[in-house]
Specification:
Elements (H helix, E strand, L loop, with lengths): L1 E5 L3 H12 L5 E5 L2 H7 L7 E5 L7 H8 L10 E5 L4 H10 L1 E6 L4 H54 L4 H20 L4 H10 L12 H4 L7 H8 L1 H9 L5 H12 L20 H16 L10 H10 L7 H9 L1 H33 L1
Helix pairs in contact: 6-7, 6-12, 6-14, 6-15, 7-11, 10-11, 11-12, 12-13
Pfam family, one: HD_5
Keywords: Phosphoprotein
Protein name: Two-component system response regulator
Length: 364
């Protein structure tokens, strides 16, 4: 326990230093002038301060007022030593933060008893602070573990949703990455952007309820099939809605709202404008961008340029104008995500092609 001692009288300073050394586990940190103390801040470490009241340039209260400008010293107990018994002096010290007084000449027995009590108080405060820090770390650890479990649940459900069609899995991951890029350009908090990336892959989870004749159909859907496909938004929301997980609740919100339109002509609830959750407005753009730039059974892939022009042109009708502006700012990141995914798919296709002759020989 380090005890700061400040006294401009050399004899008193030596006495106080000697008395502090007699207290168990205490180390004196002695200064003979306030200027020396101020020059050592904020690198000076101490747990209790003993300060003479009457000193030149700065009196004890003025010195302590300067010390506590540094947050690290705000809770340090301070004892003032004074020969002045005037109540005004003592009130000034109390207002500055004093917890005790010692009167000159200092009585060694009284000094030991008072300072020992204050040291015990400082130790108790330190232990309490350590326990609070330990508790904070434990809570943070528990929250982190819970978030990892939630993330694993989402990843497994996403994997299940794309089991029949591997391209669906890649689509959901690209949409998640695009959504995060747009959210960051909107200036959303970091944790919100991360949560959106984790929840967005679940936007089409309702398609698990779609029959294979609709999901895997080669060619354009009939009107009745299209209506049936539209039901996936509501079904996906219902699958996730009653979860206690904040991530799955966000995923439910995205599932039900990512096909709504800014002009109110979307589905399933024909919401318009700000009535559509922001998460759904963001994922709507990301989902459309990916759907247009990739080949589907019923259409070829559009070019990057044509897709961008299409989305920009539908600002204020299909898409939220603010989200479109964020999408436009995020295009360098979005294009890199798209191209990185295509490079990865090309590499996987090349590896598969290289293994195919061996498989044929093994089969023969």
């Amino acid at each position: 326990m380090r005890i700061l001692i400040v006294d401009d009288n050399n004899t008193n300073l030596k006495l106080l230093t000697r008395l502090v050394k007699k207290i168990d586990r205490c180390e004196p940190v002695a200064f003979s002038s306030p200027d020396e103390v101020l020059s050592a801040l904020p690198d000076l470490d101490f747990d209790v301060a003993i300060i003479d009241y009457q000193m030149p340039v700065y009196n004890g209260v003025e010195l302590y007022t300067e010390i506590v400008r540094f947050e690290k010293y705000a809770d340090v107990p301070v004892v003032f030593i004074t020969a002045d018994k005037d109540m005004t002096t003592r009130m000034a010290a109390l207002n500055a933060g004093a917890i005790d007084f010692l009167t000159k000449p200092v009585n060694p027995v009284e000094f030991h008893a008072r300072i020992q009590n204050i040291v015990s108080l400082a130790e108790a405060r330190r232990q309490l602070a350590d326990q609070a820090e330990w508790l904070r770390r434990e809570v943070e650890k528990a929250v982190s573990e819970l978030r990892l479990r939630e993330q694993e649940i989402i990843e497994r459900l996403t994997l299940a949703a794309g089991y029949k069609d591997p391209e669906t899995s890649r689509h959901t991951l690209r949409v998640a990455a695009y959504s995060e890029a747009i959210a960051r350009e909107l200036g959303l908090p970091d944790q919100v952007c991360i949560d959106l990336k984790l929840a967005a892959p679940m936007h089409d989870i309702g398609k698990v309820a779609m029959p294979d004749t609709v999901m895997l159909k080669q060619g354009k859907l009939t009107e009745s099939e299209y209506r049936e496909m539209q039901s996936h938004a509501q079904i996906g929301s219902e699958i996730l809605a009653k979860s206690h997980s904040s991530l799955l609740q966000l995923a439910s919100e995205i599932a039900v709202s990512h096909h709504e339109r800014w002009d109110g002509q979307g589905y399933p609830n024909r919401l318009a404008g700000d009535a559509i959750p922001l998460s759904g407005r963001i994922v709507c753009i990301a989902d459309n961008f990916d759907a247009l730039t990739t080949e589907r059974p019923y259409k070829p892939a559009w070019s990057y340029e044509r897709t961008v022009e299409h989305i920009l042109g539908r600002s204020g009708t299909q898409f939220d104008p603010a989200c479109v502006e964020a999408f436009e700012r995020a295009l360098p990141v979005i294009r890199e995500i798209m191209e990185a995914d295509r490079r990865e798919q090309a590499e996987l296709a090349a590896q598969k092609a290289a293994l195919e002759p061996g498989r044929r020989l093994a089969a023969g």
